[in-house]
Design a protein that fits this description.
By secondary structure, this protein is of the alpha/beta class. It is built from 6 helices and 5 strands, in the order H-E-H-E-H-E-H-E-H-E-H.
Length: about 140
């Protein structure tokens, strides 16, 4: 029975798509490796404009979103995403160096589902993604 549960969990992960919207190449590669190792399908956007485009084409289950990006910042991406009522909405994990309480409050008010400040522990990011997918 345990083997069947493990297979079901693996199938569930493979069916989930994540979009990483982050402009720091080292963080992008680290998160991509982390999520792919867990069996998730991963898309990448390196600025806010790309993030909005990828949201349309990829239709991810989770958006891992940095606040400070080129062209359109993460807060504006989040605001634009939540204003669009056409189609399903991904869960949003803000993963950013903006660790002040006012930034966390703003992200949550704009519709973020979770907020983690950098530096972060990989296990915290994975645990948060799992919880968001289960919700």
């Amino acid at each position: 029975m345990l083997h069947l549960e493990a297979l079901a969990t693996e199938e569930m992960r493979l069916s989930h798509k994540l979009l990483i919207a982050e402009d720091e190449p080292v963080i992008v590669e680290s998160l991509k490796f982390l999520f792919e190792r867990e069996g998730y399908t991963v898309g990448i956007a390196t600025d806010g404009r790309q993030a909005l485009e990828q949201l349309q084409s990829l239709s991810p289950d989770i958006l891992v979103l940095d606040a400070m990006m080129r062209h359109i910042n993460g807060f504006d991406v989040l605001k634009t995403l939540r204003a669009d009522t056409n189609g399903p909405q991904p869960k949003v994990l803000m993963l950013t160096a903006k660790g002040q309480e006012k930034d966390r409050q703003l992200a949550l008010e704009l519709g973020a589902d979770a907020y983690i400040a950098k530096p972060y522990a990989n296990r915290d990011v994975l645990e948060t993604v799992r919880k968001l997918l289960e919700a």
